[in-house]
Specification:
2 helices
Length: about 80
Amino acid sequence: MNFCLSSSRGRHMGLEGGARTWKILTFVVALPGVSVCMANARMKMQHSSHDPPQFIPYPHLRVRTKVNSLSRHLLISKYL
């Protein structure tokens, strides 16, 4: 005996069709899109220089007014 309702059978078939659609979209749209982005990043990396810009020590960027919590912990544990 089959106790399933016809409406529940239809929903089950709809989920299977939706999963198939997403699987097709994954292989047709998502994976080629990721491949194109990886190729673009690799080409940009090959054409750019990797030399960092010259360091200019601006004094207003190096103002330290707060004690770092990690250094505070290390100082306290040093004397315990």
